Amino acid sequence: MFTILPIKGFIDQIDGFYCDGIHAGLKPNGNNDLGFIYTKEACNVQAIFTENRFQAAPLKHFQNYEKNFQTNFVLINSKNANALTGKKGIQDIDTLFSSLDFDLINPIMSSTGVIGNPLPLEKLINGAKSFDLNAKNGEELSKAIMTTDAYPKTCMYEVKLEDGSSFKIGAVAKGAGMINPNLATMLCFICTDAKVSSQDMKEALEVNSDSTFNAISVDGDTSTNDTVMLLANGKSNAYDKDAFFEALRLVMHDMAMLMVADGEGAKKVAAFEVINALSDEDAQIAAKALSNSLLVKTALFGEDPNFGRIASTIGASKIASDEEKLVISYNDVIVYNKGELCFTPEVEEKAGKVLQNDKYKITCDIGLGEGKFTAYGCDLGYKYVEINADYRT
Amino acid sequence: MFTILPIKGFIDQIDGFYCDGIHAGLKPNGNNDLGFIYTKEACNVQAIFTENRFQAAPLKHFQNYEKNFQTNFVLINSKNANALTGKKGIQDIDTLFSSLDFDLINPIMSSTGVIGNPLPLEKLINGAKSFDLNAKNGEELSKAIMTTDAYPKTCMYEVKLEDGSSFKIGAVAKGAGMINPNLATMLCFICTDAKVSSQDMKEALEVNSDSTFNAISVDGDTSTNDTVMLLANGKSNAYDKDAFFEALRLVMHDMAMLMVADGEGAKKVAAFEVINALSDEDAQIAAKALSNSLLVKTALFGEDPNFGRIASTIGASKIASDEEKLVISYNDVIVYNKGELCFTPEVEEKAGKVLQNDKYKITCDIGLGEGKFTAYGCDLGYKYVEINADYRT
């Protein structure tokens, strides 16, 4: 048995992890735009990257290291994605690291921001040179990696094992606006002092992706920079596979939900639960189609129980379905029942009230099998347009 | 040789076609909501319908007739889609037609509006009973089929053949807001007095779909009611296959472009031209991904030459591509050139000026083959959210 307890604070709570964020002059408003994660001893590191065909330079730089390499330094900047920058983009990262006097082991870079511009090397080098590697300022780091995020994203857990030992695991992330289909970049750095092997780290990341980050972003249809990175320094000497997998799942779920809730002006989070589909795959296709539909998202914004848009989106997703078996409900209010008209004014009023909440569940019972999947989405309103109409400036 | 001339007016210009639109009490604002197309002699009719799994009742009703049937009456209503209404939805159509005293041959219904509500039969019957089948009021019909359209959509051509004979072809349509991924319904009724066979009608519709309606809507990812219907009464006794196919292509292209331009608040129309892709299929996937990207659409709204979003969307579409071969331009302004940074302040200013136009072309040269496809899209601004947040009321 094990216990997982949420604790306060940032990743600097974890033994052996140091971090900070500063303003290096990339953001015009003086906000933090450069940060780092540093560990005294080298860490195991594993990452999941975007399936976009144009992976950004820092992702290629990472993958040039040997398999299962160790690192002691991650440098993260916002405002410039270093994507679509060709060979120069990778050379710039090497130039940057070779300009620093720190004792770096396989240093990693991670970037987010505007695509297609060269890195402002001088600002980055001057900024990084000013780092205090003994800093424990997780909050400043969390601000440094933000772009269109309305707030910093973090979570922390302590895991107590049966033998009395314990480890910590936590994350800092950025990402807003429903990653897919908007292609907004998601960066998530998960740190732990668990004594976990590279092999288990890799497996745990993969196992937990489907129900967390992939439930908010369709596989592969992602930005040039999307990264989920897991760093483990082993300092706690504690480990239990089940406990670690479960704790990592919690961390990844928390961060995914924070991203959905921060949907570039979003006020509502909807769980799109598709059940009794012919297969889990069908359920996933339909659930993601719902969470990505512009018409569904604007109806949520308008608090309009327009179940026809839900049904039409399921039909358009082309999964196996039959309108005489489909049941749609908003929380426990059934609005469509197998083609028998049940959308009375009373039902409409009840359903409308559900949509006035900040969080609710929209369930589509396909009635054909046992497949299920839940995707998470948010509403889309005026603020989304405002944020994205002129993001670069 | 043949000549195709655009002419003024609505489909009532075509010999033997009668039409009108009235207010039957479905729209609360008193606007037209019910219309008809009638021909004295029965017409050949062919149609292309949505690939949505939940086809609306009128589509099923049509498909219950024998293959290559003839008709003399199409009844069209807006405000209620008669979709997701089960067997009752089809029965209602039969009830409606059997309540009318007109001499109807295989009457057809077509509906658009809110999904999941039963047809208001009494209003429809009373409205239809008041029709004057000798009316020639194409403009009133064009208004009756509108939902979120900002303006009625029509076009007319006269086709003069080498032997001195001639026929007319024209259309009335509704549809706005970039059909996919928004699932807004598109209805298009094309009428002609050409002496064309059912077989040629079917073939011509299919041949011309890809470069017209399918360039603004991804195959299959469509609403429950999407319909393109072609009616031919043969009264001109004139026909030439090449001339007819080309005239039909023009009509379908015109109507598709009118729908894109009326993009629920859209002010800009962009042609997304993908060239030199590995295959035509690849080009089509990428071009449609661009025309459907929320981030691209909001950048167009903001007149922001954010080519990174263009590139990232191509990468996310997973077609064969290489950032060192890709070239992106806005009209003739190259903003990304094979990874060599060319986005100088001067180029940025020029590109920004292109985006201030109402219409422009964004070209992506993939540099890998000879595949090409052009998709058409529009910008997405505040008005889109306003229109769709509470469409039902």
UniProtKB/TrEMBL annotation, chains A, B:
The keyword Amino-acid biosynthesis applies. The record marks 184-185 as: Cleavage. It catalyses: N(2)-acetyl-L-ornithine + L-glutamate = N-acetyl-L-glutamate + L-ornithine; L-glutamate + acetyl-CoA = N-acetyl-L-glutamate + CoA + H(+). It is found in: Cytoplasm. Transmembrane segments: none annotated. Its EC number is 2.3.1.35, 2.3.1.1. Keywords: Acyltransferase, Amino-acid biosynthesis, Arginine biosynthesis, Autocatalytic cleavage, Cytoplasm, Multifunctional enzyme, Transferase. The record marks 112-113 as: Involved in the stabilization of negative charge on the oxyanion by the formation of the oxyanion hole. One of its GO terms (cellular component) is cytoplasm. One of its GO terms (molecular function) is L-glutamate N-acetyltransferase activity, acting on acetyl-L-ornithine as donor. GO terms for biological process: L-arginine biosynthetic process; ornithine biosynthetic process. The active site is at residue 185. Substrate binds at residues 147, 174, 185, 264, 388, 393. Pathway: Amino-acid biosynthesis; L-arginine biosynthesis; L-ornithine and N-acetyl-L-glutamate from L-glutamate and N(2)-acetyl-L-ornithine (cyclic): step 1/1; Amino-acid biosynthesis; L-arginine biosynthesis; N(2)-acetyl-L-ornithine from L-glutamate: step 1/4. Its main location: cytoplasm. Heterotetramer of two alpha and two beta chains. Belongs to the ArgJ family. Catalyzes two activities which are involved in the cyclic version of arginine biosynthesis: the synthesis of N-acetylglutamate from glutamate and acetyl-CoA as the acetyl donor, and of ornithine by transacetylation between N(2)-acetylornithine and glutamate. This is Arginine biosynthesis bifunctional protein ArgJ. The gene is argJ.
